[in-house]
């Protein structure tokens, strides 16, 4: 039978996962305050497991603890965001390269099905549903790389930049372009072409050129909405 300490820790873990999911899904925007009392009431717990959950989120970089403000969803500087996207592009491109070398036939079929799901969602015009389908598509590539450490590292960084990746999808026509980029990645993986899979994925993730300008405009607009 679990003791009280284990139960309390399990509850803190559950709260942490729920808040992290809301941050990465864009339900909690960068800069949003996370009030301990309100969260304790919401989850029907004391403030202790909430405080522990927020501390864990702060360690993961998803939350900032600010003097006189308490916990807020982390807001990254533009320079930091670009640095993280640069690393993200390289991590994901390595995952795709290894997928082209190592993915089983069953994994390839699963990836193709997720790609097709993204296409179906675009036709529905539901951007939130596309974001979820897109997340599952990318996570299938992490899982298919055959390297658990790389998978964990890539997923952890994705969680930190997810609110900003979501912002990109607001740009007119971005969903269609995203799907076209997915198509190039899938074709390379199914063809067991690691070089093309790597480069196609890097282009898909990297924020540069006109995409950079569009991204910065959307990001500034998003921050004004939060403020």
UniProtKB/TrEMBL annotation:
InterPro entries: GntR_C, TF_FadR/GntR_C, Tscrpt_reg_HTH_GntR, WH-like_DNA-bd_sf, WH_DNA-bd_sf. The keyword Transcription applies. The keyword RNA-binding does not apply. Residues 9-76 form the HTH gntR-type domain. CDD domains: WHTH_GntR (cd07377). It comes from the Bacteria. Keywords: DNA-binding, Transcription, Transcription regulation. SUPFAM superfamilies: GntR ligand-binding domain-like, Winged helix' DNA-binding domain. One of its GO terms (molecular function) is DNA binding. This is DNA-binding GntR family transcriptional regulator. The lineage of its organism: Bacteria, Pseudomonadati, Pseudomonadota, Alphaproteobacteria, Rhodospirillales.
